[in-house]
Amino acid sequence: MASARASSWLVFTTSSCMVLFATLCTAISPYYAPGLSESFYDKSCPQAAEIVDSYVTKYLKKDRTFAGAFNRLQFHDCWVGGCDGSVLLNSTASSPAERDAHVNFGLRGVEEVDEIKAALESACPGTVSCADILILAAREATVKVGGPWWPVALGRKDGSVSVDLLADGNLPFPVLNFTLLVDNFARKNFSAREMVVLSGAHTIGKSHCNGILPHLYNFTGADNANEIDPAMDKGFAAFLKQKCPQGNRTNTIFLDSTAHKFDRAYYKNVLAGRGVFITDSALITDKSGRKS
């Protein structure tokens, strides 16, 4: 169980996560990189945002978990060399790309971004970058499931370099403890508190069991297949094991109890020992986390 101090701290985070999430997204607006602006496509492709929105609406009508998929895709793009769409590039015979990195197992949304790109090419040939499409899609998807709206700068250029090892070396694997999570985010100039707030994106979507198995089996590496994270609620662990049998990497499970809605349930679940990933439980179980 979490200490009283850790619980009170995370309860505060729970009550304010919506405001903080929006603040983190909007706080950068006065510091847009040269050449980027919210009005970048106003003349060259004024219908760009509307086209993206219409496709995102279509995808979410089919599967609400695409909101989480677009958020993950955006995060995994931006965390590796900046928001340049490189996560969308295909591997070659001699060079595995980011999307095929270990940390990107089960990555979804690439085909959908390709479809949106085709529609925009038809409307405005050679104008809207895939990087900008991904940024817009993540925002529109978040809003449609109850999350905050934030302004986004547009005008990014698509990158041409995509290397799997760069993804594995930069993105946080779901088995990191609190200290390693803080270090990972600090390398991108995010504070520990901002890391906890951004972890709240796990309130939507689903995951393959691949990232969950280390939470449920042989937790400490002592060759005990039945050993789970002691911070987990035992009933919840039993539920996860039904969904994710040992060795099954491809089954999927919702990330929280209201996975189709951007809300505070994620933090409440973590406090109750029902975090899906090791990184979720780490927010309250590590002594460094309790000091935050």
Automatic annotation (TrEMBL):
Quote the EC number: 1.11.1.7
- The SS bond pairs are 45-124, 78-83, 209-244
PROSITE patterns, per database record: PEROXIDASE_1, PEROXIDASE_4, PROKAR_LIPOPROTEIN
According to the record, cofactor stoichiometry and binding are noted as: Binds 2 calcium ions per subunit.
Keywords, in A-Z order: Calcium, Disulfide bond, Heme, Hydrogen peroxide, Iron, Metal-binding, Oxidoreductase, Peroxidase, Secreted, Signal
Binding positions for Ca(2+) 2 per the UniProt entry: 203, 256, 263
Please give the Gene Ontology molecular function terms for this protein. Answer: heme binding; lactoperoxidase activity; metal ion binding
Q: Where does heme b bind?
A: 202
Show which residues form the site (Transition state stabilizer). 72
Compartment(s) of residence: Secreted
InterPro entries per the UniProt record, alphabetical: Haem_peroxidase, Haem_peroxidase_sf, Peroxidase_pln, Peroxidases_heam-ligand_BS, Secretory_peroxidase
Listed under catalytic activity are:
2 a phenolic donor + H2O2 = 2 a phenolic radical donor + 2 H2O
- Any one GO cellular component localisation term in the record: extracellular region
Q: Which GO terms describe its biological process?
A: hydrogen peroxide catabolic process; response to oxidative stress
* Catalytic residues identified in the record: 76
Binding locations of Ca(2+) 1: 77, 80, 82, 84, 86, 98
Top-level taxon in the UniProt lineage: Eukaryota
Q: Which residues form the Plant heme peroxidase family profile domain?
A: 35-292
Listed cofactors: Ca(2+); heme b
Q: Which residues bind substrate?
A: 172
Presence of the UniProt keyword Cytoplasm in the record: no
Show which residues constitute the signal peptide.
1-27
Free-text function comment from the UniProt entry: Removal of H(2)O(2), oxidation of toxic reductants, biosynthesis and degradation of lignin, suberization, auxin catabolism, response to environmental stresses such as wounding, pathogen attack and oxidative stress.
Please report which protein family the annotation says this sequence is part of. Belongs to the peroxidase family. Ascorbate peroxidase subfamily.
User: What is the recorded name of this protein?
Assistant: Peroxidase
Q: Which organism is it from?
A: Riccia fluitans
